[in-house]
Amino acid sequence: MTKKFTFSQFQKLGKVLMTPVMILPIAGILVGVGSAFTTANMVNLFPLLGNQYVQLFFNLLKAMGNTINNYLPIIFAVSVAIGYAEKEKGIAALCSVIGFLAMNNVMNILLTNLGVLDTANMKTGQSMVMGIASLDTGVFGGILVGLLVAALHNRFYNIQLPPILGIFSGTKFVPMITLLGCSALGLVMAFVWPPVQNALGFMGEVIYETGAAGSVIYGLSERALLPFGLHHFIYTPFFFTNLGGSMTIDGKLYEGAVNIYNAMLASPDAMFDINISRFVMNGKVIFAMFGMPGAALAMYQTAKPERKKQVKALLIAAVIPAVFTGITEPIEYAFLFVAPLLFVIHAGFAGLAYLLTYIFQVNVPGPSSFGGPFLSTIFNGIMQADKGSHWIWIFILGAVFFLLYYFTFRFMILKFNYKTPGREDEGETVQLKGKKVDDETLAVIVEGLGGADNILNVDACFTRLRVKVKDKSLVMSDDEWKKNTGANGVVRVSDGVQIVYGTKADIYKNNLKNVLGME
Hints:
It is found in: Cell membrane. This is PTS transporter subunit EIIC. Residues 4-425 form the PTS EIIC type-1 domain. InterPro entries: Glu_permease_IIB, PTrfase_EIIB_Cys, PTS_EIIC, PTS_EIIC_1, PTS_Glucose_EIICBA, PTS_IIB_1. By secondary structure, this protein is of the alpha+beta class. Strand 1 (126-129) and strand 2 form a beta hairpin. The strands form three sheets. The chain has a four-stranded antiparallel sheet with strand order 5-6-8-7, sandwiched between helices. Strands 1-2 form a two-stranded antiparallel ribbon. It has three domains: 3-203, no CATH class; 281-416, no CATH class; 439-516, Glucose permease domain IIB (Gyrase A, domain 2). The protein is built from 20 helices and eight strands. 62% of the residues lie in helices and 7% in strands. The chain is globular.
C-alpha cells in the first residue's frame, strides 16, 4: 500500500464517518428539548408542564433521541461497510450487523470463561452492547467491523465456488466469511482492546490537565487540517472514546465527549462540565455563528461595485450553513485558495475562540452533530441555563469575534489585494449557478473531468465532489472549474480530483451517477 493510497483512504474514511455523525443533530435536538421541558425548574415556572401526559410526551422525545445515542456503534459499522463496499451495498450492510453481533458474542463468551467478565458486576470498560455483556469498544469497534466487512465483501461478493457448493457462490458467501472473520476479530479485541482503553484513558487524563492550552491546540488543529480533509481525525476520538473523558452519570459510566454531553442533557441532576464541552466544539459556536458572517461582510464590502450583487448571493448562501448547521467549508473555501494567509489567521482565531469559551465556561456545543450553532444555542444553551450553559457569553464573545473577523479580513484583503469573490480580474468572474442543478452544468462537469470514459468513480462528502479518473491530465484547470461551474476550489489528489461546491456537492454526485449510469 503506497503512502498516497493510504492518505486517500484516510480521507474517504473521514467522509464515510460523516454519515452517522449527521444523524446526531436530530437526536441531540430531541434529547435537548425533552430534557429542557422536564426539569424541576421548568415545571415550577410553567405548571402545565407537570401534567402527566405532557411529561410523557417530552420523555418520549428523549427516548427517541437516545435511540440513536445508545446504538451508535452498530450504526457506524453499517455506515462504514456501505461506504467502502464497491458493489451490492445492501449485502454489506446486512453483514455488518452480523459481524458486529459476532464480535461481541465472541468477546462475551471468551471473557466470561476467563473470569474477566461478570454480567452482574461489570468493570470499567465493560458494558451491555446490543443486549450482550461485552467490552465497550464504542464506535471504534463498529468502525473496525465495518472496515473488515467491507474488505471481505469486496474480495468475495462475486466468488465462484465449485459446482457442489455453487448455491453459496457470490453474495451468499459473504455472510459466512463475515461470521468467521468478525469472530476472529472478537478474539483479538478481547486481548487488544483493554490496553488500548487504558492508553486512551491515560492520554485523556494528560489532556485534561492541559486546560486552556489544550483547548487552543484542539481548536486550531481541527481547523488547520480542514484543507487536507483530515480534520475528522482530530475530533472523532474525543467525541466517541475516553480520550474525550469518562464520567459516571446517574450510576452509568459514559465515555467520549458526545456520549457524556448527551447523558448530561438527559439527566435531571447532572451539570455541564467545561472539560467535556470543549471537546464537543464549544468554540465553533463563536467563530461559525459570528466570525464567518464578519468575514463574509468584509468580502462583500471589498468586492468591486459592479459585482457586489452577484457576490452577495454567493456569500449569503455560504453563511447560512455556517450559522445554522456549523458547516463552514463553503465560506472558508471562498478565501482558502486565493488567500491562504487568511485561512491561517482564521485557524488561529478558531483556537482563540476555544480558549475564550473555556475561560468563560461556555458549555454549548457547536458542530452539526448537535444541530449546529444556532439551534444548539437555543436548545443546549438558553433552554439549559440551569445546567450551567453560560449561554450569555456566546453573544458577548460573538460580537467581539464578528468585529475581529470583519476588520482583519477587510484590512488583509485590501492590503494584499486578495482576489476574494468579486475582486477577480476581468474574465475570471465565477459563474454562480442557482440552487437547481441544471443539465448544462452537469455536461460541463463531465467534460471538465475528461469525458464520461475518463471517470472511474463519483462520490461526495459535505462540500466536495470527489471523482476518481483514469487520466488526470484530461481534467480542466482550477480556474476553469471556478469560472465555468461555480466551484469554490479544487483539490487534486493521487487518483483524481475533489471539487468544492459546498452543500450542492451531494446533489451533483447523485445527478452525475444518474447521467453516467453508475450504481
